[in-house]
Amino acid sequence: xxxxxxxxxxxxxxxxxxxxxxxxxxxxxxxxxxxxxxxxxxxxxxxxxxxxxxxxxxxxxxxxxxxxxxxxxxxxxxxxxxxxxxxxxxxxxxxxxxxxxxxxxxxxxxxxxxxxxxxxxxxxxxxxxxxxxxxxxxxxxxxxxxxxxxxxxxxxxxxxxxxx
Length: 164
Fold this sequence. Notes:
The chain contains six helices and four strands; from the N terminus they run H-H-H-H-E-E-E-E-H-H. Helix 5 packs across helix 6. It has helices at 3-24, 27-58, 60-72, 76-85, 125-139, 141-153; strands at residues 100-101, 104-105, 109-112, 119-123. Strand 3 and strand 4 form a beta hairpin. A two-stranded antiparallel sheet has the order 1-2. It has a two-stranded antiparallel ribbon with strand order 3-4. The protein folds into two domains: 27-58; 59-153, His-Me finger endonuclease fold, CATH 3.40.1800. It is mostly helical. The N and C termini lie far apart (79 Å).
């Protein structure tokens, strides 16, 4: 690229990129890009999926750190501080995590407010699932009522009998 081209691009970058965005919106361009995308994934998709799975399996801590950073805005260091502050115990039941994944004990789950996304504490899998149900009840009181009705309807005496 010549000095003139570089200078022109630097001066008109926004204008050039806006033109490119408009061009990509055209139906024939969209169709061509979709066809190229489909062809690429038909050819390379299985290998890419395999490499991704292999990477995730071989580097679970890196993947977990990335997930926490992008989902909760929590760095590995911040997670470690919270975990150490809680002595690696659940903030609700004060027990260590016992649930396993691929033969390894899981990390404590990050509990957060789904509205504000603010991180509250670290929980074991069981307490994290329970608090999810509690929040669901608070958001939808009819759900709790339907759950109670279901349990009353299916008491032991009303259970469906499965004959052998």
